[in-house]
Write a structure and sequence with these properties.
Elements lengths: L2 H22 L18 E6 L2 E6 L12 E4 L9 E3 L2 H7 L2 E4 L1 E17 L5 E3 L5 E6 L7 E2 L4 E6 L1 H15 L3 H13 L4 H10 L5 E5 L4 E6 L6 E2 L6 E4 L3 E9 L11 E5 L7 E13 L5 E9 L10 E18 L4 E2 L4 E8 L2 E13 L2 E6 L6 E5 L1 H25 L1
Antiparallel strand pairs: 1-2, 1-3, 4-22, 5-24, 6-15, 6-19, 7-14, 8-10, 8-13, 9-12, 10-11, 12-14, 15-18, 16-17, 16-19, 17-18, 19-23, 20-21, 21-22, 21-24, 22-23
Helix pairs in contact: 3-4
Amino acid sequence: MNRNTLVVAALLIAGVAGFFAGRFLLPGSDSDGATGGTGEREVLYWVAPMDANFRRDEPGISPMGMDLIPVYAGDVDAEPGTVKIDPRVANNLGVRTAVVEKGVLSRRIETVGYIGYDEDTLIHVHTRVEGWIEKLATKATGDRVKKGQLLFELYSPALVNAQEEYLAALRSSNATLKRASRERLSALGISGDGIARLEKERTARQRISIHAEADGVIAHLGVAEGIFVTPATEVMSVAKLDRVWVIAEVFERQATWVEPGQKAIVSLDYLPGVTLQGTVDYIYPELDPVTRTLKVRLRFDNAAESLRPNMFADVLIYGKSTGEIVHVPREAVIRGGSTNRVVLDLGDGRYRSLEVRLGIESGDRVAIRSGLMAGEKVVTSAQFLIDSESNIESALNRLSNGEAEMQQ
């Protein structure tokens, strides 16, 4: 071996020795490549040792009585289920995020309803005797009537006989018989004007006229001309349109949110841009057995008669507000059979799927009972793809840890 070869070999050995000495022996460096120095590492949050979903922004005790452990900024990527997505890929996927908020959440009840007659103004027309409808002045449901207008004429043998008896009592000098005959006519449905006419004309009429007691429309017509009726027959019903009801249906889970006097807003498709301000007037005592909804009544003035019975309406009822509570947009929640999750935006393109416990749902917001803190960011679009990737990563990590434990 010549002199030059020995010199080259010596230089190579010295270089390798210097490299390992600088890597392992020099102060201020470590085998993991961590940055030296005396600066403290940034703590993101504290987590329970036995439950990764229990997090706090300061040290404390977990529900199992164990001290919370800090999670540092450099350790987040090492947590199971954390995935990293290039910003360009996230932009192509349409990933959007929203900040987790903490504050008062209004219990808004968004539902539908329908317009109906104000039943306080509804008048049902029955006869008090058996007979036949000889002349029907109103022919169809929806016809308008005025107070005092003729509705129909009734022929009843019982009414004809009662009139003859009263005329006979008038010809007699028996005051008691006169009074009893007059009271019988009144009990059978003859008006005071009809009795006065009978006293003046002294002639029994074969047909008795029935007139409207108030202005309105025919809400229901149950007879036709010539039909035989009894006191049990509902001949017709007359209702006013200057006031109407809106009957809204509230889901069973929201039944405790609504109370009389709460503010409500009603809008209709055929009146775009128009909203009606009202209040909850009455809450019905039982749920509908078919739809499992609670009926709530609103009352509105309708002088212009723009609201017609049986119209559908969108109803918004403002229930009582909650206290300070953490809440997120509704679209951020991934709902599962037994668990609900959100995708947490950790920053720098890192994401992790996180299990949460939900509270009430009001409008487009959902309350979070545990799992999130105010100020964090959650994904509101394309979260299903990220959630799937996060679950795969978490499963692979668990599989790798299981194999490592078996080898030990």
